[in-house]
Amino acid sequence: MKPRQLITVGVVAVATVAALNTVPATASRPYDPTAQSLATLGLRHGLHVGTAVNATALNDANDPQYRRLAATEFSSVTAENAMKWESLEPTRGTYDWTAADQLVEFAKRNRQSVRGHVLVWHNQLPAWLTSGVADGSISKQELRELLRKHITTVVNRYKGKIWQWDVVNEAVSDPWDTPNTLHYKGFWAENLGPGYIADAFRWARAADPKALLFYNDYNIEAFGSGNPADDKTQFVYDMVKGLLAQRVPIDGVGSQGHLGTQYGNFDTLQVTAALKKFAALGLATAFTEVDVRSQMTEGVQAGDSAEINPRLQASAANFSVLMKACLAVRSCLSYTVWGFTDRYSWVPDWFNDPPEGLATIYDENYQPKRAYQEVKSDLIFAGPPYVLPRSTPRPRHREVTAQSLGRSGRMKVLS
Ligand code: G3I
């Protein structure tokens, strides 16, 4: 190589390293990737590593560590509860934006993206709404109009500030529901029929032309039998394909990623295959609520390491499976954990018979667990040719036409 070429190669290499790492290496201080945050390491791949944020913990003056880690380790935040309808409009007609605004401000200060969660869900609805429908004082027609107004109001308030919206959450039943054939379940489907899903995406798009609009659900990490009667991933796949065919402005599918070490779960290749199938529809994907819980046996609670260690290791392996699959698929835009510390996880409150816990990447004292290290190492050791920078879709608009469906059936987006 001629001296000039050598210089060029050297300059490019240094520029690349400088671009990828926030703290460039020097002779006296070699670059140490393990000292970088998950946020920084994720952004090397264009991938946002996010967390759900607990509004009470964020405001706890006695717990600065929570704020610090939420601000520094993650490049994306999601309100764990603050943007849900019962939080925003506890009394009919009166919105309380305090906690939601606070998180959006926090994200701005820390240069983080925001995943909006959630516009339409059957849980955590205000009592005035559910009781009004139950006693007949709110008609079906009025309910539809209330939903339109809610979506429009919330999306409009945060227009331009939300990267991805979970527009519709958990619309599909599980095999353990009755009837056990998968179907559209819950308050909205029961009262408005499944057409509310397309309506919700159209209303959200009308209010914000730029946010990426997601359908979000759990137990869709990998395909199963391929029969939509019992394979939830297949059911959701068919649903979103149908929405696209109706020119509904949906941009992505969020796979929540609530796993448990007591279950079989999936390997990286199975999860990668599922993300790729959604990508082939022209959709972005994201892991939106990752945590991996374990049963808290008497041994675990008594501190028996022979019972604790296998759980921590299995949890780490499952966090890693989802991270590796996400890294492998360019349209997987973000990997969000559902709370980052066992101190504030929803798991012990929710699963208490038998008790479950140990679900997050930091323990109750903010010590990083093996899961944190594994996710970090996935980010450090990933790169070309199998891991490439993210490819972000342009938000879909109504002008997606039948002609824009290519011969492959893939959606080309005109907007
Ligand atoms: O706000 C009340 C408070 O006033 C009261 O004193 C306290 C007493 O228990 O309850 C508080 O409400 C709780 C709320 O979280 C806020 O902390 C509810 O009881 C509790 O049920 C609720 O749990 C949330 C759960 O959604 C409800 O479905 C969890 O924090 C939240 O992590 C969880 O998140 C969901 C996602 O949104 C969707 N996917 C599944 C995920 C896990 O369930």
UniProtKB/TrEMBL annotation:
EC number: 3.2.1.8
Catalyzed reactions per annotation: Endohydrolysis of (1->4)-beta-D-xylosidic linkages in xylans
Protein's UniProt keywords contain Oxidoreductase: no
Highest taxon listed in the record's lineage: Bacteria
Matches recorded under Pfam families: Glyco_hydro_10
Gene3D superfamilies named in the record: Glycosidases (3.20.20.80)
Group of enzyme by EC: hydrolase
PROSITE patterns (alphabetical): GH10_2
Residues covered by the GH10 domain: 52-378
Leader sequence segment: 1-27
InterPro entries associated with the record: GH, GH10, GH10_dom
Keywords on record: Carbohydrate metabolism, Glycosidase, Hydrolase, Polysaccharide degradation, Signal, Xylan degradation
Region (Disordered): 390-415
Family: Belongs to the glycosyl hydrolase 10 (cellulase F) family.
PANTHER family: BETA-XYLANASE, GLYCOSYL HYDROLASE
Stated name of the protein: Beta-xylanase
Provenance organism: Micromonospora parastrephiae
